[in-house]
Fold each of these.
Amino acid sequence: MSDMTLVIGNQNYSSWSLRPWLFLRHHQMPFNCTKVSLFSDTMAADLKPYFSDGKVPVLRQGDLEVWDSLAILEYLAESFPELQGWPADRSARAVARSVSAEMHSSLFDLRGELPMNCRRRFPGFTPTAAAHRDIRRVQDVWQLCRQQYGSGGPWLFGAFSVADCMFSPVVLRLISYEVALESAAQAYCETVYNSAAIREWVAAGKAEEEVITEDEADWPSVAI
Ligand SMILES: N[C@@H](CCC(=O)N[C@@H](CS)C(=O)NCC(=O)O)C(=O)O
């Protein structure tokens, strides 16, 4: 039995929760997972034991609570150095941290217009110019990572890293909204989407029945 508990939200919608969950699951690390139904009647009570200001994800280990997806990933990378959460090379690591921080603090139009929704597809979806710019930026970021640092494997920095966890919700968004991508970005999306842990996450999201109206894009969609 693990002493780590990760508190997550609905797997269909909770993009922030996916990030640390993916790191642990991809590496087949033992952990307990507690799921909270976001914006439900029980959410406030479910999250009351935690200091995280009513938000998920939260990681608890013994008396320690770590909140915020990127902070949790940093903690996991430090706790399990053998998993090489960040690239070993200092320059690659600096760039991996840059793109992860950018994902965390920017790309608001992409995030706002294309909310993560694992169980639906949005045929013909047309992003606004602002979201389109974010999609362009994501592809440029991925191209830089893959071209300069990715020769050792199919992930952004070759081997699987925190940066892949940070961008995994974007991959799910681009797939759900059927965004046309350059071939390198498309190949990267396929790497992420076909990975065992992501398949497991998507299957769990599809099995959920809660509908969060505010997280449903205003565009006709079909179930997958
Ligand atoms: N910056 C935080 C954001 C966490 C966050 O906003 N989580 C959403 C779920 S995906 C949440 O808990 N929302 C509930 C609320 O805002 O009341 C992180 O990276 O963990």
Amino acid sequence: MDSTTRLQDDATVVARIFDHIDHQTTDVGETTWREPVENYRSPERFAAELEILRRYPVPFCPSAALREPGSYVARSAGGTPLIAVRGHDGQVRVFRNACRHRGTQLAAGAGCQKAFVCRYHGWTYGLDGRLRHVPHEHGFPGLDKDARGLVAVQSVETEGLVFVTQQSTPSLEAELDRLPRLIPPSCRLIRTNEGEVPANWKILVEGFLEGYHIRSTHQTTFYPVQFDNLNVVETFGRNRRIAFPYRAINKLRAAAPAKRSAEGKLTYVYHLFPNAMVATFPGRIFLILLEPLAIDCTRQIAYVLSDREDDDAEAQAALKRGGDFVDAGAAEDRDVACSIQRSVASGANEFFEFGLFEAAIGHFHRTLRAALGAQDECKRG
Ligand code: FES
Ligand SMILES: [Fe+2]
């Protein structure tokens, strides 16, 4: 597996894929990885993982979900209810979703509004979080409205994503500076799918990170168009990118190497540590967020984005077919994840073993273990 921190260009990835097709090989890791099943069952481990989700910069939503001033997205991240909102100045800000009077949440889901008015007693906050109005204010003698605005968390908008971290870090922008191009600014939000999956969040992450299961799990969905167990795996920082080529990639052999674009010829899955995926499909980009609700339950939020302007019925129908196809494959992955979850307490396995083809999963678990270790050290220090 490639361990450089820079991702290769399409032409290089395609050349590596042709090499694998010609030799019936795939990228392999140096070692296998054994993850103790206890790590999917231990409440202490789960609590520590939630802390990681709050401490590291994580994608909260795509920029395209916050198109205009007043557009907001409210959901929990790492167990904390947050609201991201675009201000009149065009800047995205993220706040803890709690009224500064008695804590009522100020918004749910997504929408667009001029201000956040608390439904309990009507305290009103501007898009910049400032407390603007308190009904019957004389009931709060000495209230310092400037000090009672919504509580902000650090956020950065970059590469078409809004990142948040609940533990401020001075190096946030520099850290995110090293990201590859993820979601082009021209992308619009087509739809959002959300649902609860009765499985540990890490089991769901694992399902995105290898192509060894394409033939068995996705027999009638992905397998007819994709190769089984043929991937290019790269890592960048705490993150990774896995290329899943389509059989149609062979058409690129006729093109000059420098002119080989991966668009429509493979799916890239970018795993942004710890719990987000950006996956490219023809005409579509998916942002998938895995928010742990409990040790055995995860909210999966999928934002579907596109920069295609095709309005004619035929193009729309083709895109819909593509969307249905991805949904069918994703349902198969969720099904397997739920099946694994049901076996976690069976006592059958002391560890799950990830083989040489599943090295990206080993990299994920190693990164998570290191992050948890660093957290422990911080606490001891
Ligand atoms: S709790 Fe929000 S106004 Fe009272
Ligand atoms: Fe899958």
